[in-house]
Design goal:
The complex is a heterodimer of chains A (210) and B (105). Chain A contains 7 helices and no strands. With 210 residues, chain A is an all-alpha fold. Chain A folds into 2 domains: 88 residues, Four Helix Bundle (Hemerythrin (Met), subunit A) (Up-down Bundle), CATH 1.20.120.1200; 69 residues, no CATH class. The N and C termini of chain A lie far apart (94 Å). With 105 residues, chain B is mainly α. The longest helix of chain B has 30 residues. Classes of the chains: A mainly alpha (210), B mainly alpha (105).
Chain lengths: 210, 105
């Protein structure tokens, strides 16, 4: 039993959740089948939601599961199934060649090294000033995080919040425009009936331009 | 007995940078537009984790507010991005990111 002395619940939670996160992330990158990659992404998103709870961001953890795992991954799977692109690809082929993967690995290690060096230089402490205890943005143990987030969103960041609604409307309109089937004059749904009507249309187009 | 380390916020930051690096490598290595998009989501999530960790370190709720906005922007980005991918893959069912060298259909 003395082996477990000092093992806090937070340590166990962190190890399990971070293992889920990293395994899921590697699964996204290494799975040749896009459907399996999308399912691995769920593992990462759940792991991050658990880490949010461990850091007392309960509302964000719920939103993370609902929006990411519930909506975004389902959207990915819908697109995969709708388009029928859910077959495995051959990952041994290097499309760009010329050591592109080695270069990508070096870039990834540099991206990883930069923040790790930063932690080492500050010995893992944040350099910014913490919020004053009586400031409205200070986290208090008595107020729930939802209440504090709501107050922050609807007072300090009200304008930004309203702008996000405009952003969402623009995104919805843009998605409808993009996903709509293009209807051109020469667009034919069924290739079998293409020959005769296409010829007729060409002759009528020639008359129109003449 | 083994000295057990305490979980410090720096661990969460380190995990965030590992996830970000994996996502970046995946974005560079994979050529399937959908998988590249999932890697972008990975990087966004790594940043969200970092924001929440800093929010806890500095005792400041604004870090969590930023994550709410990141979520909204990510949702909008996914909708538009998947719209583009659907329009693209409908015309060229086996297109990879390298086939899209001109910004027109």
């Amino acid at each position: 039993m003395h082996l477990l002395d000092g093992v806090t619940p937070e340590l166990i939670v962190f190890i399990l959740a971070s293992a889920a996160c990293i395994a899921g992330a590697l699964g996204v990158v290494l799975n040749s089948n896009p459907v399996h990659a999308a399912l691995s992404l769920v593992g990462t998103l759940f792991g991050i939601a658990v880490l949010f709870v461990a850091q007392e961001a309960n509302f964000l953890a719920a939103v993370q599961v609902i929006v990411y795992a519930g909506a975004i991954v389902v959207l990915f799977l819908f697109v995969l199934m709708l388009l029928g692109v859910d077959r495995a690809e051959d990952l041994s082929i290097e499309p760009l060649g010329g050591g592109q993967r080695i270069a990508a690995g070096i870039v990834g290690l540099s991206i990883l090294a930069l923040p790790l060096l930063a932690f080492a230089s500050t010995s893992g402490e944040a350099t910014g000033a913490p919020a004053a205890a009586d400031a409205p943005n200070a986290i208090t143990k008595t107020t729930p995080d939802v209440a504090q987030l709501g107050e922050s969103l609807f007072t300090t960041y009200l304008f930004a919040f309203e702008v996000t609604s405009v952003l969402l409307v623009i995104a919805v309109v843009g998605a409808v425009v993009l996903a709509r089937k293009v209807r051109r004059a020469d667009y034919v749904e069924d290739p079998l009936v293409e020959a005769a009507p296409a010829a007729a249309r060409e002759s009528s187009a020639a008359e129109g331009s003449a | 007995m083994i000295a057990v380390a305490q979980v410090t916020p720096a661990w969460y930051l380190a995990l965030g940078s590992v996830l970000f690096a994996i996502g970046a490598v995946g974005l560079l290595v994979r050529r399937n537009p959908l998988v590249m998009f999932m890697c972008v989501e990975l990087m966004l999530n790594a940043v969200a984790l970092t924001f929440v960790t800093f929010s806890r370190m500095l005792n400041d709720i604004n870090g969590q507010t930023v994550v709410v906005f990141v979520l909204v922007v990510a949702a909008a980005e996914v909708v538009v991005g998947l719209g583009i991918i659907v329009a693209l893959l409908r015309k060229h069912p086996s297109a990879t990111a390298d086939d899209i060298t001109v910004l027109r259909g």
